[in-house]
Design goal:
Aspartate Aminotransferase, domain 2; Aspartate Aminotransferase, domain 1; seven-stranded mixed beta sheet; three-stranded antiparallel beta sheet; binds 4'-deoxy-4'-aminopyridoxal-5'-phosphate; Phosphoserine aminotransferase
């Protein structure tokens, strides 16, 4: 059966990237060894790391004032590593609370300094993006989540932070569109959606921000030794870095971030148009704040919702169930998703509606 992969992460990857990764497991670049068998300090891997770092800079259009790191620990580690490195104990960082991931970041930041929660959308279950708020001008940074994977909202403009440096968790919309990366002081993302396989976290940091906190930072959690070591401080997740490199190569070859955005809009337009015309299916999110990556919706009758999920399963459509914290339904439509998968589920939704 043809599978349609709506998983939220780890999630769909380009078929050719999977083929290249599989080939490299058997024989990396024709050297007669697997990518899983080579040392991270070999010139073979150094070339992978160099290309991966330069692809990030190329896609993001950023210069040498930024360092590109491939770290362990997932985006969740960044929830604490960011404030540990950037937030002095007696200072304040501003945070936007737009969803469960931002909320987790806030909890960790409080371990290191003061947190000003400048905006929260808890009042309406994070079903919208609040754009009006004031950031204290002396805040060390403003942290926000560009795309709320669970709730299905996305920032379609930059938050207004004045001169306060911006820090973004871009785990679920990185490399999905042209984006003012260079207006950010730090960007991080778990790779397992648009940037590759699970096991590596991309961190892009403007170097002049570092070295301003007094606390002792364990070496492995300090960005500076990672930067000095060219992201090879200890053994990196070699295979995951390789898959990220292949994924970024694919994005570039397909036409870059502009092309990714065009495809994302085609998929999202098709899906949201269906959602707005089929009365059985109800959107959860304010129209102007809808995510192009994760669309959330419900069928109010839970027995029917379960029937629809069963039907999805029978038709090879996986990952349609919403996150365990919010329930309902969710379609994740990352870079590698063909329009035909969205067409298939839209047809299923129409059929299901017609049979009511
Ligand atoms: N932030 C966002 C926006 C996410 O979607 C996720 C995971 N889906 C995380 C953080 C946590 O990432 P990880 O599991 O890599 O720690």
């Amino acid at each position: 059966m043809m599978m349609h992969n709506f998983n939220s992460g780890p999630s769909i990857l380009p078929k050719e990237v999977l083929q290249q990764a599989a080939d490299a497991i058997h024989n990396f670049n024709g050297i007669g060894l697997s990518i899983l068998e080579i040392g991270h300090r070999t010139s073979w891997f150094q070339q992978v790391m160099d290309e991966a770092q330069s692809l990030v800079k190329d896609l993001m259009q950023i210069g040498d004032e930024y360092a590109v790191l491939f770290l362990h620990g997932g985006a969740t580690t960044q929830f604490m590593q960011v404030p540990m490195n950037l937030l002095p104990q007696n200072k304040t960082a501003a945070y936007i609370n737009n969803g469960i991931w931002g909320n987790k970041a806030i909890k960790e930041a409080k371990l290191f300094g003061n947190v000003a929660e400048v905006s929260s959308t808890k009042d309406k279950n994070h079903s919208y993006i609040a754009k009006d708020f004031t950031v204290p001008p002396d805040a060390v940074y403003l942290h926000y989540t560009t795309n709320n994977t669970v709730e299905g909202t996305e920032w379609h403009q930059l938050p207004n932070a004045g001169d306060v440096p911006l820090i973004a968790d871009m785990s679920s919309d990185i490399f999905s569109k042209p984006f003012p990366y260079n207006k950010h002081a730090l960007i991080y993302a778990g790779a397992q959606k648009n940037a590759g396989a699970a096991g590596v976290t991309l961190v892009v940091v403007r170097k002049d921000l570092l070295g301003k906190v007094q606390r002792a930072i364990p070496t492995i959690l300090d960005y500076r030794p990672h930067i000095e070591a060219g992201s090879l401080l200890n053994t990196p997740p070699v295979f995951a870095v390789y898959v990220a490199m292949l994924t970024m190569r694919w994005i570039k070859k397909e036409g870059g971030l502009g092309e990714m955005e065009k495809r994302a809009k085609e998929r999202a337009d098709l899906f949201y148009n269906a959602l707005d015309t089929l009365p059985l299916f109800k959107p959860l999110v304010a129209k102007e704040d809808r995510s192009l990556m994760n669309a959330t919706f419900v069928i109010e009758d839970s027995a029917k919702e379960q029937q629809f999920l069963d039907l999805c399963k029978q038709n090879g459509m996986v990952g349609v169930k919403g996150h365990r914290s919010v329930g309902g339904l969710r379609l994740s439509m990352y870079n590698a998703m063909p329009l035909s998968s969205v067409e298939a589920i839209v047809e299923l939704m129409k059929d299901f509606q017609n049979k009511q």
